[in-house]
Prior knowledge:
- By secondary structure, the chain is α/β, with parallel strands linked by helices.
- It has one domain: Ribokinase (UDP-N-acetylmuramoyl-L-alanine:D-glutamate ligase).
- 36% of the residues lie in helices and 19% in strands.
- The protein is built from 8 helices and 9 strands.
- Strands 3-2-1-4-5-6 form a 6-stranded mixed sheet. A 3-stranded antiparallel sheet has the order 7-8-9, sandwiched between helices.
- Strand 5, helix 4 and strand 6 form a beta-alpha-beta unit.
- Helix 5 crosses helix 6.
- The longest helix has 17 residues.
- The protein starts with a strand and ends in a 27-residue tail after the last helix.
Amino acid sequence: MIPNVLSIAGSDPSGGAGIQADLKAISANGGYAMAAVTALTAQNTQGVRAVSLTDPQMLSDQIAAIRDDIRIDAIKIGMLGSAQNVATVASALSDIDAPIVLDPVMVAKGGDRLLDPDAVAALRDLLAPMATVLTPNLPEAGDLLGLPAGTDRDAMAEQAQALCALGCAAVLLKGGHLDGPDSPDFLLGADEAVWFESRRHSTRNTHGTGCTLSSALAAQLGQGKALHPAVIAAKAYISAAILRADDLSVGSGHGPVHHFHAFQRGSSQT
């Protein structure tokens, strides 16, 4: 059965992150992708120019319309933008029985802030306890905990434990911001503490990697996989998408990863 996967996130008109990346990643990972839009942004590969948040009632209505008609097998939550939108999503999903991947989008690749500071507490208190897995990068983890971003594996392990204490079932803490040639991720849950090792790919085209990984993970969980094998599959997908990112020619800043690398022949293969 093809899983129906709902992304709740903001729109990126350049197609590399947000809803657009989520729809691609979910589809490439075998899911039927749906979306409730939390914000419109004006952005490209160089940065974010403007953000217009969705009215909370409209956001609630989008989710309700989907729930009234379509089975939801997994959910990915990305950019929410405000404390009111955080509360709206938490209320709209309060009784749902589906895995939730919470990607706490706070700052864009170019440094533009995408979550109001007063919304961080709301996300931590209302949505983190609902998450099947929380997928922050190191700056996002620090922001959630009110701590500096971790700079080594010991700090990552400590912060993953503190994040689990917020009430989520598991944390996948992404180590892409560490210095050095490696980019390790740490998965911590009730029954597992696993390091996923990977080498850093040499490319500037990494726009939307967090959105893409979390959406791929939601699609894998929606197929009924346990968390550990779902993470393995999602990480293999994003690694290949980054490796093939330079097949694309999109913009002059941080370009997107290649979401459909498995389906399209790129320049590296010609």
